[in-house]
Amino acid sequence: MFVIVGLGNPGNKYEFTRHNIGFRIVDSIAEEYNVPFKSGKGDYYFSEFKYKRNRVILVKPVTFMNNTGIALHQILKYFPVSVEKLLVVYDDFNLPFGTLRFRREGSDGGHNGLKSIIYHLHSNVFDRLRFGIGMEFKNSVSFVLSKFNKNEQRELDELIIAAKMGIENWMDEGIELTMNKFNKMYL
Question: For residue 158, what are the domain limits?
Answer without folding.
Answer: 2-182
